[in-house]
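Look at a sample.

——
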Amino acid sequence: MSGLLGVPPRELVFHIDEPRISPDGAVVELDYRITHVSTVGPVERFTETVTLPAVEDPVEAGDGFRTLARLLALTAATSYYKALVPGTISVAGGLTDAERHFLTEVVKGGLAEFAYRNDLPDALFPTVVAPPRPAAEGSPATPTHQRALVAVGGGKDSIVTLESVRRVADVTLFSVNSYEPIARTAEASGLELVQARRVLDPALFRLNEAGAHNGHVPVTAVNSIIACLIALRGGFDTVVFANEASSSYGNLEWHGVEVNHQWSKGLGFEGMLRTLVSPWGVDYVSFLRPLTELAIVRRFATLPYLDVFTSCNRAFHLDASRRRNWCGECPKCTFVFLMLSPFVPASQMESIFGKDLFADAALRPLFLDLLAIGDGHKPFECVGEPSECRAAYTLLQSHPDWSAHPFVTDPSLRSAVVSPAEVEELFGFSDRHFLTGALEKAAREVL
């Protein structure tokens, strides 16, 4: 058991060291330590390793690569900081003004759900100690979007994105670590898939087993920066993620902080990271940002991936023996079932999910939360807004396969039925996005 477990957080210091980059830029090692303020006593040490995929003619790791590696160190630090939530974060190598702001936002927004679930509000506001550091000067370039690195996770959003972007750019797919749904999607698309490998320090898992705090961290933020590193090294000028409009919609307010499970998929994080990577010639953008889940699902239902995709997190369980394509029990399964049903025959829905989720009484509380009926809140999962769920439920009222279903005719759910105008509004194109040129045109064509 760690000698630092049980020590008051105010007596602990979390250290973020300078990342170590291999001579060829293929491996980035991230070093962290947790110490007592007295500097006497036990020390927890962690090293995380990120291995980038092989690329032809890799670009030398220059100032831009080193700058992004530092951002990766700051972001990945959340996995280790949260274990004991030290009162102070120390960055001996210094922080630029932009990095200091980035770190404080990543801790506050990226760990808000973790802090809420563990009732640790102070975890979101550590004291950051770091000398000022001059910012490296980049040379911004206007992206051509000719070579795009597109993140793929095996779900409907990334599938709609890759199929749209491939029509206007030379697309290479990207993922962090290897999972079967990702491989299936890449194979179905016929596109090249490059994979980075992220290995957390086993000491973190031992610390968790000994009783350290655990919970949600901003994984998409980590993966986004890894993608930008691959882009710099491989000569891609565009990194495309599939985060849509509802990612910016939070779950609840707590201690003056919006708790959003999807914080690092939201518009705010996207804008912040864009500002930091664009000086190095990388356009980081979310393709589906102007679109709602309803519009995305309607488009997805027309694509030949219904037997391939999955959005259930059980498919990505660390324990391979516990992986399932669709568990049929979680908020993601219920959400996707609700959103997809207006556009896919009932028989095919049951074939995909293994059962009729609307008929499962155990899932009723989840559906009520999705529809914002009762005292619950939006589930802590990557699910859409209540307005989108209500629009999907409204469409079921006139669907030949579903209109007579007890779930659809339930009088206690009538408040979830909205007007045709409210449904139609959700098939619009928002102006809250960072898309330009051919990418914006392609996104409009999703509708």
